[in-house]
Amino acid sequence: DQQVKQNSPSLSVQEGRISILNCDYTNSMFDYFLWYKKYPAEGPTFLISISSIKDKNEDGRFTVFLNKSAKHLSLHIVPSQPGDSAVYFCAPTHNQGGSEKLVFGKGTKLTVNP
Amino acid sequence: DAGVIQSPRHEVTEMGQEVTLRCKPISGHNSLFWYRQTMMRGLELLIYFNNNVPIDDSGMPEDRFSAKMPNASFSTLKIQPSEPRDSAVYFCASSPTGDLADTQYFGPGTRLTVL
């Protein structure tokens, strides 16, 4: 049962344009959503997060939007830079049976072309 | 701080052999997580510890997998016996608190290949 879906395995954009990475989830219990970025041969690094009580969180060039009714969130990067080329993971978390779970999507590989 | 340290970075072994992956979390962090990344299943949480105590091991695939955290600065993930389907990248991560909403700091991973 795939609770978190990142339906676009890859995305390619031009430098300076906007990158939009999408994430859909099925579990309405998710109450906190994190995005991690991963470069090749490195571990993921935290990028940005949003609580379910908000619908938008902005940090510099990165903005995450949450639509709880649609169970959908998206990560916007503007303007995109070649250094943003990486795999981006959506990772919601929730409390299940007394312990919290962090569930990662399969990731979207972003390529920003100079 | 050097960050989360994992060893070895690469491991190639034959089916049936025992494999031990090691992790040193960031000093002062209370939680430690073991993940496995495969093409088919993405990044999966296997087990996590809080204050050296295993909190949730429901992600451990089967009894061939075991994890220990004898002290706050060291953890192992052992596979015995290993099988080709265990081939994956295994990540260790640590977090300052036990709150999963808190940022996790990942190590560089161990790429395991079981022949």
What's the layout of helices and strands?
The complex is a heterodimer of chains A (114) and B (115).
Chain A: E1 4-5, E2 10-14, E3 19-25, E4 32-38, E5 45-51, E6 56-59, E7 62-67, E8 72-77, E9 86-96, E10 99-102, E11 108-113
Parallel strand pairs in A: 2-11
Antiparallel strand pairs in A: 1-3, 3-8, 4-5, 4-9, 6-7, 7-8, 9-10, 9-11
Chain B: E1 5-7, E2 10-13, E3 19-24, E4 31-38, E5 42-50, E6 53-56, E7 65-71, E8 74-79, E9 88-95, E10 105-106, E11 110-114
Parallel strand pairs in B: 2-11
Antiparallel strand pairs in B: 1-3, 3-8, 4-5, 4-9, 5-6, 7-8, 9-10, 9-11
Can you describe what's shown?
The complex is a heterodimer of chains A (114) and B (115). With 114 residues, chain A is an all-beta fold. Chain A contains no helices and 11 strands. Chain A has strands at 4-5, 10-14, 19-25, 32-38, 45-51, 56-59, 62-67, 72-77, 86-96, 99-102, 108-113. In chain A, strands 2, 4, 5, 9, 10 and 11 form a 6-stranded mixed β-sheet that branches. Chain A has a 5-stranded antiparallel β-sheet with strand order 1-3-8-7-6, with no helix packed on it. Chain A starts with a strand and ends with a strand. With 115 residues, chain B is mostly beta strands. In chain B, the strands form 2 sheets. In chain B, strands 2, 4, 5, 6, 9, 10 and 11 form a 7-stranded mixed β-sheet that branches. In chain B, strands 1-3-8-7 form a 4-stranded antiparallel β-sheet, with no helix packed on it. In chain B, a hairpin with a 2-residue loop joins strand 7 and strand 8. The mean pLDDT of chain B is 93. The A-B interface holds A 32, 34, 36, 41-46, 49, 51, 89, 93, 99-107 and B 4, 33, 35, 41-45, 55-56, 91, 93, 99-101, 103-109.
